[in-house]
Every structure is written in C-alpha cells, then in structure tokens.
C-alpha cells in the first residue's frame, strides 16, 4: 500500500529558502581581524545567494550537474556558495587549501571544476596552479587580495561583489532528485590519490536534521555557532547548513584560526557553541591561560576529528565552565557518526566515563564491529573490532573511478555495502563507542592488540608531557612493539623511566613501551591529526634517537 | 551527477532495531491504576515487538501491505504494535475509540483491517461492532477484561501474551520502500465520512527526527515522556516513535486519563515532558489546586490540538514551574506544523507574545497564506489568510477513494498539491504563526473577519468564566455577528454587561458580541475540541436562551 503523503524532496534549496524567510533576522558575522566584523542577516545572505545563482547561470553559464569549486575560508561568501550552487542543481566542490599543490591540482582536474570561487587572500596559493587546472574557465575572487597574480591567466577573472550586484533576487529553482550530488569533498588520505565523497541533497538535509537534535549538536534559534572546523572539511561538520536551517546565528572565523584571534572573536561576538579538532582547543586553552579573555558565552564545544585527551576536556570545564562534548565522524559520514552525550541518572564519575567515549550513534547510523577475519564481534563493551557503518548520510562509494563511475575499494566497503571506517574499538551494550585506535595504527604484539591512542592519552595526562605519539615498530620476538615519542613541556627534564613508571600504573605490563624517543613536536596532517606515518618513516630511516629501556 | 551516498531507506524498522539495541536500558512504564506500574526495558519491548511480528506472520498469516487495526489505549503493547506491524511491511490502523460506533465500523471496513489488536478493557466497545466488521478475521486481546463478550463472534480470538510467547526474537525484515504506508489514521472530521491519512515510513521517520530537534520537542535519552495525547490520534504527536529513536523513556497512561490518576502517575513515575490538548491541562491544573501533588519532574509540557488560553500557560508556569509550549498541528501533518519556542534575546513581555503564538515552522514545513479569492497574502504579521502547507510529512491526498485510489478533495488540496489547513491566521516576517480561527468558524461581519477564538480567549481570562465559545450567527445587517456562549464558575452571578465591558477593554468595539447565552458546558468533539457546530445548531433550533444587549 502506498502512502498518501506528499512527495517533497529533501534539498539544500529548502534550507536556503527556509533560512532566508523564517530566520531572516539571524546573523552571519565574519571576523575581519582588526576593525568591525562583517555582519549580514540570513535574509540578506539568502538574497545574495540567489543573486549568486543567477550570476553563475546567466553570466558564467553554469548548468545543472556542473562543478563549482570553492577555495575559501569560513566566511559569509563561502556560505552563499554553499546555498546557491547546490540549489541551482550544480555541485559545490570545497577545496582543501591545506592539500599539497599537486593534490589540489589533481582534485580540481578529477572533479572537472568549471569555476573556482576563491578568497583574495588565497590567490597566492591558486595562481601558480592555474596553468595546470584544465577545466577551470572562470575564477571569481571574493574579498581583498592582490589580484595582479592572476594577470595573464587563461581563465576569466570576476570580482564576486561586481558579479552578483543587481542580479535578480528570484531564481527558477529546478526540481531536484534528492539523491543527486550537492557537494563534493575529497578525503585528505595520507596514501594514494584523494578520494571524492559526493554528498547528496538528501544526505546533507538528513545530516543537518541530526545536528539539530538534542543528541546531535542541539542547534536552534537561541544559539550562535562558531565553526572553527573548516567549511572545506566535511561541510564544517554540518554546522553551517544546520544553523541556516534552524536560525542559529553563525560566527565565521575567516582565516583567523590562531588561538589569539579566536579568543578575541569569542569575547567580542559571543558565540554559544563551537566545533573544532583537539589541537585547536589545546591552543585556545593555552592562550586563555596566558592572556585571559571573557569566553563565558560559550556553553558547549564539540570536539572531533581525533581522539581528545580527557585532560583537555576537564581543563575547559574546570577553568572556563565550558562543556566539551566528544564526537566522532569521518568525511565519508558527512561527517557525524556518534556524539558523547551521557544518559541520565549517572554519578559524576560514571558520566565522565561516557563523556570520554566517542559516544552514541543516532538511529540513522547502523553499526557493527568485525574482527580481522570478518566475523561479527559482540557489542559487550570489551570485545574489540573494526567499526563498520551503514546509513543514509554515509558514503557507499567514491566519486569518479577509471570510467567516471563510482568506485568501491575493497578495503573501504564491504561486499554488502557497509563502510569500513578503519577505526578499531568496542561498543557497550547501551550503544556507546570507544575507539581504541586506527586499524593501521594499532600495535599487533604477539597476537594481542595494543592501542597506541590509549598509551598516548595516558602519557599526555602526565604534567611534564606536552604531546606524545605512539607507533608500532617491527620487533623480532613480538612482531610489533610500541615506540613512544614524547614532546616534553618547556623546562622539564623528566626521564623515560619515570614516564614508564607512570604508565605502568595505568596499563598492563605487556603493553609498556621499551622504545622511547624525544621529539620537538608531533607531525600533523593537513587537518591537524597526528601523522604517525611520518614518525614511522623517521624511525625506519634512523632519524630518531631511540632509547631502549630494559 | 549522482551522489556516492548509500541508498538506505528511512523506516520504522530502523527505529525498532536502533531503540532496542542502542537504548536497551530505557523504559516503557505503563500505569495500571492501583498497584505497581508495568515496567519493560526498550530491549524487552524490542524483542516482544519482533515476537509479535513473527506471531502475526506465522500464526495469523499477515502479509506485506495488509492492515492490522489497533483499538488500544496508550500502553506498552500498543507501542509493540507500532513497531512490529510497519516493520514487517504491514500497515497499522490506529482506531479512534472515541468515534461513534457507526464511524468506527465504517473506518475498519474502509481500511479492510484483517486483524484487530484490542485492549481487554475496550472489548465492550468492540464486541457489538464485530458482526459488521466484514474484513476482520482475527481479534487479539491484550490486557485484562471480560472476554466472554466475544463468545460466538466470527473472528478467531487470541490472547496477546499467549500469541507472542516463545516466538523467535529474529525476523527477516523486508526491504521496504520508504514511501510505502506504515500507519493509517482517520481524521475525526465533523462532517462527512472520516478521511484516512496513510503515513509512510519516510514521513514517520522524518517527523520523529523533527520531534527530536531542539526546535521540536527536544527528545533525548535524558527525558521521560508522558504522551497523554492518544496513540490513535496522529501517532501521539510522534512522541513514542521519537522516544524509541532517542532513548527517552515513556510513561504510558493507559486508560487513566482523568486528572487525578494523571497527577498520581506524574508524582510517582516522574516524567520530564508531556503532550496533550488544552482541556487535559485545564483539568490537571484544577486537580493540583484541589489536591496538590509533586509534579516537579515535569520540565516542559507541549500543548496543541486547539488554541491554548494564555491564562492556562501562565498558571502552569507560575504555580508549578512547568513551561507550557504551544504547538500547532493536524492529523494531515503527522501532526507537527509549528512550535512556539521564542527566539533568543527578548524581554519577558516579548517572549510571551511569541509563546502565545502557534510558533515557528521547521524547514520541512513550507508555508503560505491565501485569501478567500486564492491570492497570496503578505507574511507581515497582520494580513490574515488561510494557511496552506507543503512538505515530506504532510498528506497530499486521502486514502481510498471510490476506486481504492487516493483522492484529493478540492477544499483540502490545491491544484499544485499543497494542503489547505482550514486554519486562518497571520505569519510574521520572522516566521511565527498566529492562528486566529478556523476558516469555518471565523465570523464574517460586514466585510471584516472577527476571530471567534480571540473573543473566547479574552472571555476565558475573566476570573468568573470557566469556559466560553463564540460562534457566528446570521445577522440581517452585517451578514454574521458573534454569539458568546459562556460557562460561569460555580457561584458566580456576573452579568453579560460586565463581561462585555471586560471585552471592550481588549478588542475593537465593532467586534463586541451583542448576543449572549449561558450554557452548562461547551460541547466537545471526540478529541476534546470545542464543537461549535453543535452550538450553532442549538442556536438555530432555538434551544439557547439568548440575551440581546443594546
């Protein structure tokens, strides 16, 4: 029996129109460094988005299904592109400005971007690449920057404001199949070519609804969100779409992502909620210790993208009254997987145990754990396996294989269509996920798995340790053993024996690292994650000064 | 360009499996009057639902697409039917036990229910109808009640517990197109035959996600919800689906809907949130005044189904610290239309103005106002028109016309597929809806519209008035004029002149009723709404003692 409900598609167009109409007074505030922040209402942003759609269509000839790239910071114009490009039936390709030049060129060519909207401040990055960007016909420059670097380039150059000025504020929105692509985002994989995830209108809409839920980020018209996580990184975790959907105002940090300006803009503009990777919060915490600012407007900050040291969560809560909420996701999950809101009725201690986990999955993220040999692992809170997930905002393939078709690498997708996350952990009977490691970083020692992340977290809880990374290194007897690399705080002269004694009170004896090395800082990927591949290579190349304890 | 996201349907099956797995410890508590409430965990409810599906399939031969009726109060077994029947691909038809016998027979025959699951306490209602229920082959009785009334009936009678006992706790769930029907609910229209709305898996899932949002009812694992609104009335406003989705525990009132037992169960089981029509809250307020109970667990109550007197909202807030949130919906909207959560940054007085409105629409409910001649009315907060809506959980037709096809009566659906709500009101520039009347109840006086509801609300704010209903009556000079019918509080001897003087301070002079009548109580429909049709008929029949003021 078919239902009698209306067949209305879930589209980004609906987010654009609704936000502009029903939440017209909400604001997008973009930080400008010195001087006044730029302020626009959602109503103005909506009209400008429609003007942008008209400009792209009428002036640049952008048709449905074509790809428009954005090489931009988090700012109002980037949000306008977020809303306009998918609504007109085209696809927004957010370009990760931290990718190496060769990879940036590769992804633009792979996605066949016809237009690139670029911030003026990023022209020095784009200009040298342009000769190699074969499909790019138009460059639209938003915001200040030296445009002379584009002189002589093959593409037609436009000024963003001049392009949209005076355009109509209506657009004949196409009726869009909700399963069509709305946005493209390439994972910044550390091996092989980047892999494209083509989000659909449906996946963006459903994911935004989840972010709006209490079990998500709880967005509403009472909030102002500060997305520190870049808009080129999994849609800024959905924060800007969901803000526009519910009328939460948005504070855009633009290129001012250093701890000092972040503290300044929080004090001045007073956001209530924010989202970023742990390294950003670590930096902000140190900044606030050094130069206190009023950050009391912040109610909650969401932390994800890498495991968060519990010490950092507690520091924010105790020193600044800010609740740090742990979340887990991946580009392939739009990115929301799980959020660590604890259940009701717990003691403070129990609550912390839940909050330090990666959290609970929403109904739309189906989950299972599998062992190395592909068997299901019990969800009992202790058995460990690789996490596999399934759901309407989870990738089932990557964009553009050899023949332009979607492709499904075997190490990423199961034969029955689930995504293999590459994360290893346990799930409790009441559904809480604790990740212990990346599948590739886990240390396989004599048939047992040792979590590199668990060792790191314990080490980083030591008062003398600034950062620590633990990697697997080959061992004749055990197959692999952990190597602990440590960044000490300034002035500390603590020895390895003392650190190992500290660890020995917290983990089983057979997990204790024998090999130790001091490093100046932990190498990071373009999105701020520990880059353990680099440490393993340095070890292999003999670059580290390794001490072997008895 | 097609996206690379997984094509996973939004289904009730997902709600069932997720709730049972991830929120296994949450509870369904059913009130039993005296004695201990019945308590089951979501894990147990999930397993029992799967057993019910197996029993319906294996024992009763229920196939995909067939209809299973439920004639039940709000209790755990009803929730099990909610989860099991749609998940197996069948359709749950919730029967409104307050419908007149002839209509109840009509809807069962119209929907061709093969099975009816009925509470033992409702057998006296069902038994006399059974001979006329042509399609019903099986009756499944849940809970205590005299079953001898079924002796000799044509259908096979089963005991619910015996039927499900020992059945497998796995089921080969079919892959369901999310647009297929999951549940049937007939509107209790006061004119013509009842009209069936066939909710889809998709509409139930999306609507539940909206209920979970902060701009919805904010459901999460930290809450316990008390759905006083019946599960046969627009899925109890989505509360039980969304509770099972997020792990909010549920307090089921069963048949104990009188103010006394409601106050008792709130004090004993301590729910945090509830939902009901205004008359229920009015009764509870009087009960608490007469016999105080500890209702401090309640954080928020959602009120809808009829316009809520502001005096009632303020009384709950001031006397009991319970926030009353106004919401608007209809069976055809699953039922959520709008919720009156005010925006941030308002004075207390401004906030009340927003809270007394019907509220803000979510992105999934597109809205417009049209005049009597079909023109669009500006959304300026003052211009009044009929509300039309469009969206993925809104009916686009009714179930089963002459040839079994969906049908679209012209007075209910526009040619471009929007639902005509029959409600008249205004929408502000920032998206807040204020309904002033039903299109059929509005008083058309000399070319102006007078809101009957506004006059009623003012009258009911008078300390001597218990209830008041205002209806249009024919008038030679003005076409129509308001007739005020009033129920005075016990012992009051206030006169019509004094009431009119009270009104004259609150509405324009030309809106003041000339005709007044005392009544003993306002007649109500089966769902507790004022039944103005009855008052108009009594007036026309000369049954009311009408006083005409100068």
UniProtKB/TrEMBL annotation, chains A, B:
<dbReference type="InterPro" id="IPR042099">
    <property type="entry name" value="ANL_N_sf"/>
</dbReference>
<dbReference type="Pfam" id="PF00501">
    <property type="entry name" value="AMP-binding"/>
</dbReference>
<dbReference type="InterPro" id="IPR020845">
    <property type="entry name" value="AMP-binding_CS"/>
</dbReference>
<feature type="domain" description="AMP-binding enzyme C-terminal">
    <location>
        <begin position="454"/>
        <end position="529"/>
    </location>
</feature>
<keyword id="KW-0436">Ligase</keyword>
<dbReference type="GO" id="GO:0016877">
    <property type="term" value="F:ligase activity, forming carbon-sulfur bonds"/>
</dbReference>
<feature type="domain" description="AMP-dependent synthetase/ligase">
    <location>
        <begin position="24"/>
        <end position="399"/>
    </location>
</feature>
<comment type="similarity">
    <text>Belongs to the ATP-dependent AMP-binding enzyme family.</text>
</comment>
<dbReference type="InterPro" id="IPR025110">
    <property type="entry name" value="AMP-bd_C"/>
</dbReference>
<dbReference type="InterPro" id="IPR045851">
    <property type="entry name" value="AMP-bd_C_sf"/>
</dbReference>
<dbReference type="InterPro" id="IPR000873">
    <property type="entry name" value="AMP-dep_synth/lig_dom"/>
</dbReference>
<dbReference type="Pfam" id="PF13193">
    <property type="entry name" value="AMP-binding_C"/>
</dbReference>
<dbReference type="InterPro" id="IPR050237">
    <property type="entry name" value="ATP-dep_AMP-bd_enzyme"/>
</dbReference>
<protein>
    <submittedName>
        <fullName>Long-chain-fatty-acid--CoA ligase</fullName>
    </submittedName>
</protein>
